Amino acid sequence: MNPVEAFLPGTYTAGVPYALFAELRATRPVCRIDEPAVGAWPAGPGFWAVFRHADVKHVLRTPEVFSSHLGATQIRDPDTPADLEFVRAMMLNQDPPDHSRTRRIVAAAFTPRAVRELEAVIEERAVALVDSVAGRGEADFVELAADLPVWTLAHVMGVPEGDRRLLFDWAGRVIGYQDADYAGLSTAAQEELSPMARAALVRRPASAPRRPDGRPMNPRSREALADMFAYAHALAEWPRPGSVMARMREGGLSRDEFENMFFLFAVAGNETLRNGIPGGLLTLLDHPDSLRLLLDRPELTGSAVEEMLRFWPPVIDFRRTATRDVELGGQLIRRGEKVVVFHASANRDETVFTDPDRFDITRAPNDHLSFGFGPHVCLGAHLARVQMRAMLRATLDRLPGLRRAGEPVRLTSNFQNGLKTLPVRWGTDR
Predict the structure, then answer these.
(1) Bridging pattern class, strands 326-328 and 138-140
(2) Residue 212 confidence (pLDDT) above 70
(3) Count of beta carbons in the 10 Å neighbourhood of residue 212
(4) Tens digits of per-residue pLDDT, 336-388?
(5) In Å, what is the CA distance from 14 to each residue of 24, 179, 399, 414?
(6) SS3 state at 403
(7) Mapping DSSP to helix (H, G, I), strand (E, B) and coil, where does residue 192 land?
(8) Pairing of strands 317-322, 331-333
(9) Residue 140: enclosing H or E segment and its boundaries?
(10) What is the distance of C-alpha 305 from the center of its chain?
(11) pLDDT of residue 223
(12) Which domains does the chain have, with CATH numbers?
């Protein structure tokens, strides 16, 4: 296979190319990959791809050499210098000391202690979601599971109940730049929206915004998400005490930092679990011996979630930019060049994981990198694990005989490892 397949979004419609990753780990663990035009998106200069676990860890823990700030963290470059300057204000795209400062502002809301206080209500919500479909005998698990991270984020951020589906829609709009099925997604019930949401939606672009040259505008730009940022500012005027929004308002963030922080929670925080929960369940259903073991031994739920995350990482890759000339994996990387770490490959590294292509819910230790590593390790990892455990247990405990009811449909994306549909059935009727 050509290494460029690791870049092309269409590759992932058929599944993550683990065979290609294994070949490259063995023969070209750090290699140069072209960045051809994809649809309406222009070609880029190419990048260095990093496939081995140890090298991925090294890149992620040395921001002084591999910067999140210089070119941001998506493979594709921002369209304009102004776009780059804007996204640099996102915590995800900052280096220390700015990253340390902005992370501290909201970190208290995601400590293990803070998450433990939410665990009971998250478990109750997961049970309620599963019970809402239990009588049907079948469902699209992607649609079912998507509500839990949206509800949890709305709860943590202080978003009114009637507005929470807006978080889902905004995330879909961002995904839509690679998968057109999501571009115009709208699931929020207009009659349930708060007055501030209705006022913000007036600023929603009627169609995908385009640059003067006709190219589509980056979906993460201020123009493309004008309604979301208007909503963020309106919500900040009435923050619930102790909520993430209250911490953001009181934390001394700049306007750009505030808007990007809202994006990070509303979109990125939502997408990780919207991918991870259905993908994890699909993996379990495709390994019936592991499913039976977990049904017999529910105490393995925590270990099972870790193996699901290793086997189905919600995020495929992240980018850095070299701050100076540096050697990595026998290759000379020049200052300013893109460096893309493939978490999905690192999670199957045979030098770290015994029999890495085997799904083993008893695997220990399990040093997967699905939540990243180093200064940018996922702030919401504890919260994500609680939600995955809650949804998995509610599903297995309350939907006996759970099985696939058709072929899942994968997301077209070289960044998000997601499913668009996962039809499932339960009960005794076969």
Answers:
(1) unpaired
(2) no
(3) 5
(4) 999 999 999 999 999 999 999 999 999 999 999 999 999 999 999 999 999 99
(5) 19, 14, 28, 12
(6) strand
(7) helix
(8) unpaired
(9) strand 138-140
(10) 16
(11) 76
(12) 3-425 (1.10.630.10)
At 222 the pLDDT is 74
Give the mean pLDDT of 71-75: 96
Whole-number pLDDT of residue 419: 95
Read off the tokens for 129. Answer: 């979601």
pLDDT at 206 over 70: no
Angle separating helix axes 301-311 and 269-285, nearest 10 degrees: 100
In sequence order, what are the residues at sequence separation of 6 or more whose Cβ sits closer than 8 angstroms to the Cβ of residue 207? none
DSSP label at 14? S
DSSP states of 321-381: EESS-EEETTEEEPTT-EEEEEHHHHTT-TTTSSSTTS--TT-SS----TT--GGGS-TTH
Rounded to an integer, what distance in angstroms lies between the CA atom of residue 250 and that of residue 149? 25
d(CA 175, CA 416): 8
Beta strand 138-140 with 423-425 is antiparallel
For the chain, report the end-to-end CA distance as a whole number of angstroms.
40
The answer to whether residues 329 and 349 touch, using CB atoms and an 8 Å cutoff, is: no
User: How far is 113 from 115, CA to CA, in rounded Å?
Assistant: 5
CA distance 347 to 332: 25
Check if the beta carbon of residue 419 is closer than 8 Å to that of residue 408: yes
pLDDT surpasses 80 at 67: yes
Judging by DSSP bridges, how do beta strands 331-333 and 47-50 pair with one another? unpaired
pLDDT > 80? residue 128: yes
pTM for the full predicted model? 0.93
Q: Which residue is it, tokens 């963290």?
A: 73
Task: Report which secondary-structure segment, H or E, holds 318.
Answer: strand 317-322
Strand order in the sheet with 423-425: 138-140, 423-425, 403-404
Torsion angle, CA of 343/178/41/206, rounded to 10 degrees? -140
Instruction: State the amino acid at position 40 in one-letter form.
Output: A
Query: Which residues on adjacent β-strands are paired with residue 32?
Result: 48
Q: Which backbone phi and psi does 350 adopt, to 5 degrees?
A: -70, -15
